Structure formats: C-alpha cells, structure tokens
Amino acid sequence: MSDHIYNVLFLCTGNSARSVIGEAIMNRTGAGKFRAYSAGSQPKGRVHPETIRLLESLGYDTSGFRSKSWAEFAETGAPQFDFVFTVCDSAAAESCPVWPGQPMTAHWGIPDPAEATGSPAEIAMAFREAYRLLNQRIGAFSSLPLSALDRLTLGHKLRDIGLMEGATRAPERT
C-alpha cells in the first residue's frame, strides 16, 4: 500500500460552486489518499451562498473555503498536482497555467448550479444535482487502482469519467 497522497486541483471559471464542491467531496471521500484544492480562472471573490448551505447541510466544515485564482497554485511553493480536473466548459477551453510535474488532466464538465433560476427550491435542487454528479465522478475516480494503471490507460479512464451522466460536452481530444 502506497503512502503517497495524490494532490488534485478542481478548476472552474468562478470558483464559487462546482470546483468548491469537488474539493469538498474529494477531501472527504479520498481522505488519506487524496488532498484536493479548487481554484478559478476568474474567481468570483466569494463562494456562492447556496454552495455553503448545501455543504453545511451535508456535514462539511465550510470555514476554509474561499474563491481563489488558479494563479495561487502556479506560484513557487504551491502544491505539485498529480491531477487537474476542469468542471466547467469555459475553464476547459482556457489556456491553463503550466503545472509543474505534468499532472494528468481531464474535463468533467457539469451544468453550473450558480446559473440556475427559479424558486429557492429549484436553485437548491440545481446545487444538489451538481453535488450528485461530482460525487459520482469522484467515487469512480477514487476507486481506480492508480498505481496499477499506466498513464495512457489512466488518461482514458479519466476521460470516460468525464463522460458520465450529466456531462455538458465531450472533452477535447489532443
């Protein structure tokens, strides 16, 4: 059993909903195997209040969450990432910083709950749905036998996870 803890970065444009939810889920379900972070290319400056409400209702400690730029993670002394996942289509299309160590990357796009309209119940439902979809993907990812997979096979599996139920678009092939 490896003692290596894999660093994972969830990226979105605003870093107010999906990427923060991904960070929360991964840190809970992957504790001891993964350490997750989140950031945005154009951070909103605050985590969406419904993100906080949802996570607190599910028993998460939200005191450490904040909306931050991905530039923080491109600086000297920042964690070196093993995996970087974009969870919104606009962040996937942007030119990301060059991450040291050549992390594995994949696009896991899902609908943006922060764009939901309607009643408070409908908006809360959009956030719960984003949580459900991310939880499925993270569950599939965290169950992979990472040390037993070669880089090419792992890359295919990461892309397949991004195509699970609720995917907003197919990831770009490079």
What report would you give on this structure?
With 174 residues, the chain is α/β, with parallel strands linked by helices. It has one domain (6-162): Rossmann fold (3-Layer(aba) Sandwich), CATH 3.40.50. The protein is 35% helix and 13% strand. It has five helices and four strands, in the order E-H-E-H-E-H-E-H-H. It has helices spanning 18-29, 49-57, 89-93, 120-142, 151-162, and strands spanning 6-12, 34-40, 83-86, 104-107. The protein has a four-stranded parallel beta sheet. Helix 1 links the parallel strand 1 (6-12) and strand 2 (34-40). Helix 1 crosses helix 4. The longest helix is centred in the C-terminal third of the chain and has 23 residues, at 120-142. The model has no long low-confidence stretch (mean pLDDT 90).
Helix-strand layout with pairing:
Layout: E1 6-12, H1 18-29, E2 34-40, H2 49-57, E3 83-86, H3 89-93, E4 104-107, H4 120-142, H5 151-162
Parallel strand pairs: 1-2, 1-3, 3-4
Lateral strand order in the biggest sheet: 2-1-3-4
Q: Write the element-wise H/E pattern from the N-terminal end onward.
A: EHEHEHEHH
Tally the helices: what do you get? 5
Helix fraction by DSSP (H/I, runs of at least 4): 25-40%
- Alpha carbon gyration radius: 15 Å
- Main beta sheet: 4 strands, parallel
As a percent range, the share of strand residues is 5-15%
CATH class reads Alpha Beta
Quick structural overview:
With 174 residues, the protein is an alpha/beta fold. It is 35% helix and 13% strand. The chain has one domain: 3-Layer(aba) Sandwich (Rossmann fold).
